[in-house]
Automatic annotation (TrEMBL):
It holds the Pfam family AAA_33. InterPro entries: P-loop_NTPase (IPR027417). SUPFAM superfamilies: P-loop containing nucleoside triphosphate hydrolases. The lineage of its organism: Bacteria, Bacillati, Actinomycetota, Actinomycetes, Pseudonocardiales. This is AAA family ATPase. It comes from the Bacteria.
Length: 220
């Protein structure tokens, strides 16, 4: 279900209006009120080489009973690679996609590089509940070695590696102070299975916290 289309009159809107007291979309054209599921979104982020894609492949069996794990780059197609406004179209499309998946009753774990400022300011942010951010990071020289070891066809020259290391350093320094904060896991020496367990626990804890808040609101 595309939440940007009113099921009452068929109008398509770019700025969603959500009722202040409930997960209900209100059509500005006809006033139709459409309840929807507003579930949490889990953004597994970090620099290239820190382990996101490897861990992401292992999260599906670990979280198959709870969440849908998706790789951000699957939508990195020509039509969405417009750099305008920090690739706004790409990121807003992902919020819409996550919201549609949420209507099936399962939260989304989005695997790919993103920081809070790139999602939190978008109108489509209203479609999802809390967004939790967790970054896989690494010690600089370990990350440099991983990126240098990648196949030549992936295009990892020294300039690109230096840019990635700068982002890694920024995340390690600033991530916990951002709003919302970005939690960190250092994968420099952490075994892969332990990283998967830590990410799985992070998702399960976030879902449990959301469930507890929902139950407390429902109680008279």
């Amino acid at each position: 279900m595309d939440l940007q289309i009113c099921v009452g009159c068929g109008d398509r809107f770019t700025t969603p209006v959500v009722a202040p007291d409930a997960a209900v979309l209100v059509c500005a054209q006809c006033g139709h009120r459409q309840p929807f599921r507003r579930l949490p979104l889990f953004a597994l982020t970090g620099p290239s080489g820190a382990g996101k894609s490897t861990v992401g492949r292992l999260l599906t069996p670990a979280l198959g009973d709870l969440a849908v794990v998706v790789e951000q780059d699957v939508l990195w197609t020509a039509g969405l690679q417009d750099p305008a406004d920090d690739f706004r179209l790409f990121r807003s499309t992902w919020l819409r996609m996550a919201a549609m998946i949420h209507q099936s009753g399962r939260p989304v774990v989005l695997v790919g590089t993103v920081v809070p400022a790139q999602l939190e300011r978008l109108p489509e942010r209203a479609f999802v509940g809390d967004i939790h951010y967790l970054a896989l990071v690494s010690e600089p020289e370990a990350l440099r070695a991983r990126l240098r070891a990648r196949p030549a066809w992936r295009g990892w020259d020294e300039r690109r590696i230096d840019e990635t290391l700068a982002f890694n350093d920024w995340l390690r320094r600033e991530g916990p102070t951002l709003r919302p904060p970005v939690e960190l896991i250092d994968t420099t020496t952490l075994p892969q299975e332990e990283t998967v367990r830590a990410v799985t626990s992070w998702v399960r804890q976030g879902c449990a916290d959301t469930e507890r808040r929902s139950l407390s609101v429902m109680r008279p």
